[in-house]
Design a protein that fits this description.
Elements lengths: L4 H24 L5 H18 L12 H8 L5 E5 L2 E5 L8 E6 L2 E5 L9 E8 L2 E5 L5 E9 L2 E4 L11 E9 L2 E4 L1
Parallel strand pairs: 1-3, 2-4, 3-5, 4-6, 5-9, 6-10, 7-9, 8-10
Helix pairs in contact: 1-2
């Protein structure tokens, strides 16, 4: 498993912050245990980011880059960098998408889309937000790795019999994905 570039960068930043704070604690002040807790937390977070630790306590079997590649080139890809964008899919057949929000926001309106089969929405959010509006006649499955961010599924209702499943695979660093 090869970590994504930004996972390595953010992981290295947290590790360096933790080591520098710990070094300052050891070099300039008397040894006090509470001063080591914050640097230890930063180091653990950095190592988990690099290793791809997910919110279920298991290590990811694939990187998000590999998952995006599996989505194939036939899937549309939308990116928002320091900007915002709304993607509307009215009365069109939806078959999946890749969304990237970096310091930006994406709104995916699928509430009037035609979803006839199981589909996957891949989201990569860094200091941004993705909002997904789904039709009421689909089931939702969420997989994700939020790091200082979150994935919020606000959908009401349970499992609909024989309904297509929309799987949302989300990687959130200092950002979030909201499902409505």
């Amino acid at each position: 498993m090869r970590p994504r570039f930004w996972n390595i960068v953010w992981g290295a930043i947290f590790i360096l912050m933790g080591i520098s704070i710990a070094g300052a604690v050891f070099g300039w002040w008397a040894f006090v245990m509470w001063k080591l807790i914050f640097p230890a937390i930063l180091i653990v977070i950095g190592v988990q980011i690099i290793r791809g630790h997910n919110h279920n306590g298991h290590y990811a079997e694939q990187t998000y880059e590999e998952m995006y590649r599996q989505a194939g080139t036939d899937k549309p890809r939308y990116e928002a960098t320091f900007s915002g964008q709304t993607i509307q899919c009215d009365n069109q057949v939806f078959e999946g998408v890749v969304l990237e929000a970096t310091f930006g926001s994406l709104r995916l309106r699928l509430d009037r889309a035609i979803i006839n089969q199981d589909v996957t929405i891949y989201c990569n959010v860094t200091f941004g937000a993705v909002e997904v509006f789904l039709p009421s006649d689909v089931n939702v499955q969420v997989q994700g790795t939020p790091v200082f961010g979150g994935i919020n599924n606000q959908r009401r209702g349970g499992n609909l019999e024989n309904a297509p499943v929309v799987t949302i695979v989300a990687n959130c660093s200092f950002g979030g994905v909201e499902i409505r």
